[in-house]
Amino acid sequence: MRRPAVYREAQVQRLPVQAVGGEEVRREMRVLGDFLEGILEQVKAELHKEVA
Question: Which residues contact 44 (CB under 8 A, 6 or more apart)?
């Protein structure tokens, strides 16, 4: 879900979006971070297989 107003407000205030967006934005960012970590782990595993 996009929240352009939250991101705009963060830019105007020169603050991290987490400081402006509240708990919902922090939760979404944690989920995104977990997703990206999962992808990174898959890539590392594939690279390890290629090296071995």
Answer: none
Average pLDDT over residues 37-44: 96
Cβ contact 25:18 at 8 Å? yes
For residue 17, which of 36, 38, 27, 37 has the smallest C-alpha distance? Answer: 27
26, two tokens: 């922090």
Which residue is it, tokens 């970590």?
37
User: Which tokens sit at 31?
Assistant: 């989920």
10-16: long-range contacts, CB 8 A cutoff, minimum separation 24: none
pTM of the shown model: 0.62
